[in-house]
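step: validate -> pass
step: tokenize input -> pass
step: predict -> running
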Amino acid sequence: MSKALRTNGTFGSSGSSGNYEDSGAGGSKGAAKRRDSSDASDPEKKAEKPKGYKECYTKMLNLLAMRDFTELSMRERLLKAEFQPTDVEKAVARAVELRYIDDNRFAQAFVRQKSESGWGRGKIARELEKLGIPSDECADILGELLSEDDELEHALRLLQKHRTSAKNARDAHYRYLLGKGFSPAICAKALRKLDL
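step: predict -> pass
step: emit ->
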């Protein structure tokens, strides 16, 4: 019998198959690979990648590279990714210190973008508050960046594009502007301007 092959009892007809152990280097690779792949598919045997401060901070930087966040929205995003609260707080605090996260900057950009896309003060303020911007800061930023004349102009632009088949077109236009976050006063002014 060959020294390279020790049988468990029988050879196959060709002398090279059957149950055997290969005392050489390569014979058990296939079985080892099969064992490794079955281990890898077992979720209990997979090692969980540790999620420490470094990973949390890296994740935060990757998110900030894509878009801006408020402190609250970043905190929520990192906690949802299952980082430890202490690591999340430390990472967000560092980002604020370095001004990678700046709630005031975020709010100003948000007001400009959303007002230009047809949102009224009310809707903008509600969304900013959901994102963690205090209501008094929202009011200050809106007062600074969105005058009543600007808001009226945005409302007029929307009305000129709005089509309705409702019997009471004036009410439909009014409700449409209210839904966009414009105040009742701005809605009424816009309708008067267009004689609707």
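step: describe -> Residues 1-26 have pLDDT under 50 and may be disordered.
step: cleanup -> pass
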